């Protein structure tokens, strides 16, 4: 039995070694990796063709390394280790999207503006200058910038980080303005749940339902007349000011509302949400995803979120087919940490605290 076992073990080692050499050969001869990396820039280093790029001299972005058969089309772990040991011994903090979000957040922390950080990453990491292309990821880079307070002057040290205090908002209504080729759209609302003594926060479904066509003459008792959406800007003197972003008239008594098809869902009981939230929209109750959006409740201003088609994530052919030229997703919330009534005040944003 002992002799037979040892022969089997030796055979396994030989097979692994053969597999290793085979994958090395295939990865050099074929263009599988180039097809997988798409528009991401690749780098030839130490004889390896790897999906990685230097964003700065000290920031290296790459797709997640793989082992075994997946290494045929992704960065092989042993090749990545070899390069990092050669150039950055003991350093590795994979990709384009999530990697880009972290890289851009670090660049913003180092003093870059959000747009400059996103532009630099796109230029250095991709061949088509798209970089961090998912709108929600770009949105969160903006969230991070709002948490930073830089000291006045040049080279006066690291910025002060003031994270928002967890803030509960109550979702009152979901409306899709200017939809075509559909009479109903299903949605699922979920939020990240905090787990004691763990950094990982799993997603938990809060509710699911369906937006249906807005009927003429219908008005919910708790519906607001209309809302305007604003964003903060900076003038030439670097003083903060509030400027109109874009407006969608949501007056339920205005005939203009009926010029476009609106799909609407009013919550009979407002849905309390805290922290990171994701809303996914489907053509059917199960399957047929159209698009989705992610946001954090602490950064909601004016009790309203309005998102155009280009502000939504993973919009495919099916998703575009139901959106008219004036399409807009509208999410209406109650005031911060409150249980009743609406507020259109721009002062209902959640407070912040010093993370230090």
Automatic annotation (TrEMBL):
<dbReference type="InterPro" id="IPR029023">
    <property type="entry name" value="Tensin_phosphatase"/>
</dbReference>
<feature type="domain" description="C2 tensin-type">
    <location>
        <begin position="182"/>
        <end position="336"/>
    </location>
</feature>
<dbReference type="Pfam" id="PF10409">
    <property type="entry name" value="PTEN_C2"/>
</dbReference>
<dbReference type="GO" id="GO:0004725">
    <property type="term" value="F:protein tyrosine phosphatase activity"/>
</dbReference>
<keyword id="KW-0378">Hydrolase</keyword>
<dbReference type="InterPro" id="IPR035892">
    <property type="entry name" value="C2_domain_sf"/>
</dbReference>
<dbReference type="GO" id="GO:0005829">
    <property type="term" value="C:cytosol"/>
</dbReference>
<dbReference type="InterPro" id="IPR029021">
    <property type="entry name" value="Prot-tyrosine_phosphatase-like"/>
</dbReference>
<dbReference type="InterPro" id="IPR014020">
    <property type="entry name" value="Tensin_C2-dom"/>
</dbReference>
<dbReference type="GO" id="GO:0046856">
    <property type="term" value="P:phosphatidylinositol dephosphorylation"/>
</dbReference>
<keyword id="KW-0904">Protein phosphatase</keyword>
<feature type="domain" description="Phosphatase tensin-type">
    <location>
        <begin position="41"/>
        <end position="151"/>
    </location>
</feature>
<dbReference type="InterPro" id="IPR051281">
    <property type="entry name" value="Dual-spec_lipid-protein_phosph"/>
</dbReference>
<dbReference type="GO" id="GO:0016314">
    <property type="term" value="F:phosphatidylinositol-3,4,5-trisphosphate 3-phosphatase activity"/>
</dbReference>
<protein>
    <submittedName>
        <fullName>Phosphatidylinositol 3,4,5-trisphosphate 3-phosphatase and protein-tyrosine-phosphatase PTEN1-like isoform X3</fullName>
    </submittedName>
</protein>
């Amino acid at each position: 039995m002992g002799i037979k076992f040892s022969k089997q073990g030796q055979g396994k080692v030989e097979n692994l070694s053969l597999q290793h050499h085979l994958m090395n050969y295939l990865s050099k001869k074929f263009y599988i990796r180039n097809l997988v990396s798409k528009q991401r820039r690749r780098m030839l280093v130490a004889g390896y063709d790897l999906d990685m790029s230097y964003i700065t001299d000290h920031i290296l972005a790459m797709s997640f390394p793989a082992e075994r058969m997946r290494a045929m089309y992704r960065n092989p772990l042993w090749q990545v280790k070899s390069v990092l040991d050669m150039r950055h011994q003991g350093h590795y903090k994979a990709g384009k999207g999530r990697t880009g979000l972290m890289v851009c957040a670090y660049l913003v922390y180092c003093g870059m503006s959000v747009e400059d950080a996103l532009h630099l990453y796109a230029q250095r990491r991709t061949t088509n200058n798209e970089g961090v292309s998912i709108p929600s990821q770009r949105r969160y880079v903006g969230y991070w910038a709002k948490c930073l307070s830089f000291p006045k002057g040049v080279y006066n040290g690291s910025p002060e980080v003031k994270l928002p205090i967890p803030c509960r908002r109550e979702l009152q209504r979901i409306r899709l303005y200017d939809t075509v080729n559909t009479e109903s759209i299903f949605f699922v609302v979920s939020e990240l749940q905090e787990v004691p003594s763990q950094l990982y926060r799993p997603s938990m479904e809060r509710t699911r339902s369906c937006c249906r066509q807005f009927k003429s003459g219908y008005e919910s008792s708790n519906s607001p007349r209309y809302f305007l959406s604003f964003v903060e800007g900076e003038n030439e003197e670097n003083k903060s000011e509030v400027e109109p972003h874009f407006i969608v008239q949501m007056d339920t008594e205005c005939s203009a509302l009926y010029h476009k098809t609106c799909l609407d869902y009013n919550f009979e009981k407002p849905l309390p949400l805290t922290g990171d939230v994701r809303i996914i929209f489907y053509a059917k109750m199960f399957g047929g995803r159209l698009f989705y959006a992610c946001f954090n409740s602490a950064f909601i201003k004016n009790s309203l979120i309005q998102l155009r088609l280009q502000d939504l994530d993973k919009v495919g052919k099916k998703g575009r087919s139901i959106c008219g030229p004036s399409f807009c997703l509208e999410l209406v919330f109650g005031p911060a940490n409150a249980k009743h009534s609406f507020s259109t005040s721009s002062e209902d944003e959640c407070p912040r605290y010093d993370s230090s």
